[in-house]
Amino acid sequence: RRATKRALFNALEEGFSTNLGSTTPSEFLFATIVLSHST
Description:
This protein is mostly helical.
């Protein structure tokens, strides 16, 4: 399960990098929701 969590964070980091290039409301909302549940 640790590997799964690490993979999730890696995907999240990639998503943030993509958002820096072109911010999509839906993707930003998804990232915010994921962060809220992660905390």
